[in-house]
Design goal:
The chain contains 14 helices and 14 strands. The protein is of the alpha/beta class. It has 3 domains: 23-44 and 152-257, HAD superfamily/HAD-like (Rossmann fold, 3-Layer(aba) Sandwich); 48-149, Calcium-transporting ATPase, cytoplasmic domain N; 264-347, no CATH class. The strands form 3 sheets. The protein has a 7-stranded mixed sheet, with helices on both faces. A 5-stranded antiparallel sheet has the order 4-5-6-7-8.
């Protein structure tokens, strides 16, 4: 079993997937449902603000000052649009509420950038506030609304098709607006999705799946996804994920393509098959060899050769994993150096 797991981990790493927990490959084989976050997972997480011209310059300045203090992709998109025209000193007492947004004080007012219901001081626990989307609010009054567009992650559609062909259900769990989720779901052929979810709601959905007897793989990247990644049967995150997301995830894929998900499942299934084959080989070998040894027909030399041969047999069987075909496309060679840098950073 250990030699198969080592070979499987090497195979995945060569294809751009880092295994952080060896037991995760065993759990991955049991997965029958895959839950995806949207922003940064099904999309590249590099949204672009498309209505900057409609926003007053002073409001964009305040929003950028807040957004610069958050790693959330939407906040970063606002900050980049303003092109560094503000500094941290413009705001005091800046705090971030995961799943909601970021808050700061300036000139005696409280400014909030994030989920509309939260920014306006509404009860948005259920994600059904009167307003949706990302807004900037001052003392509970809306000052600006922001619209974004993002690019689908390479291989997303192919990955989802592969998972569904293998009999696994696919669902999208997102904190984004209904309209944004509907567009992405339609583009990728995802039939089930939930929008405007808080981190706790994602965890609740995974717990609901577990109660129904399903074992879910959660794929997410953000700070908001960390609780769901920890609650899932097995989890995966891109290398661009927030630090806490990468630390919680069982697998980290180091290139942009989402085909890393079906690839990891495929390699894990083949590893499980090879482990069963090795156990069967060991049983058959011992059923033949042990009685012969008991009858005294085995000299020490023959025993040493036989023992070494049995080890070589299971190792050779495990190495077959390096030569088998794969269902997912190869990771571009250009990403190898990035993989090595990430591995070095993790070790440090």
């Amino acid at each position: 079993m250990p030699i198969v797991q080592v070979v499987a981990a090497r195979r995945l790493f060569e294809r751009g997937v880092m295994v952080r927990d060896g037991s995760a490959m065993e759990r991955l084989v049991d997965v029958d449902a895959v839950m995806f976050d949207k922003t940064g997972t099904l999309t590249l997480g590099r949204p672009r603000l498309v209505n900057a011209a409609e926003i007053a310059p002073d409001m964009l300045t305040i929003a950028a000052a807040l957004g610069a203090q958050s790693r959330h992709p939407l906040s970063q998109a606002i900050a980049q649009t303003a092109n560094g025209c503000v500094t941290v000193a413009d705001l005091d007492d800046v705090t971030e509420s995961p799943g909601f947004g970021i808050e700061g004080r300036a000139a005696g007012s409280i400014w909030r950038l994030g989920r509309a219901g939260w920014a306006l001081g509404q009860d948005d626990e259920a994600g059904d506030g009167q307003r949706s989307g990302t807004i900037l609010a001052r003392d509970g009054r809306e000052c600006a609304a922001f619209r974004f567009e993002d690019v689908l992650r390479p291989g997303a559609a192919q990955a989802i098709q592969s998972l569904e062909r293998a009999g696994r259900s696919v669902e999208m769990l997102s904190g984004d607006t209904e309209a944004a989720c509907r567009d992405v779901a339609a583009s990728l052929g995802i039939r089930r999705y939930a929008a405007a979810l808080l981190p706790s709601a994602k965890v609740a959905r995974i717990a609901e799946m577990a109660t129904a007897g399903h074992k879910a793989l959660m794929v997410g990247d953000g700070l908001n996804d960390a609780p769901a990644l920890g609650a899932a049967h097995v989890s995966m995150a891109p290398a661009t994920a927030a630090d806490i997301g990468r630390n919680v995830a069982d697998f980290v894929f180091l290139h942009d393509s989402l085909e890393a998900v079906p690839l990891a499942i495929d390699v894990s299934e083949r590893a499980g098959k090879l482990i069963r084959e090795n156990i069967a080989l060991a049983i058959v070998y011992n059923m033949i060899a042990v009685p012969i040894a008991i009858l005294g027909y085995v000299t020490p030399l023959i025993a040493a050769i036989a023992m070494s041969s049995s080890s070589l047999l299971v190792i050779a069987n495990a190495l077959r994993l390096l030569r088998t075909r794969e269902t997912a496309s190869a990771a571009p060679r250009a990403h190898v150096s990035a993989m090595n840098r990430y591995a070095g950073g993790s070790a440090a």
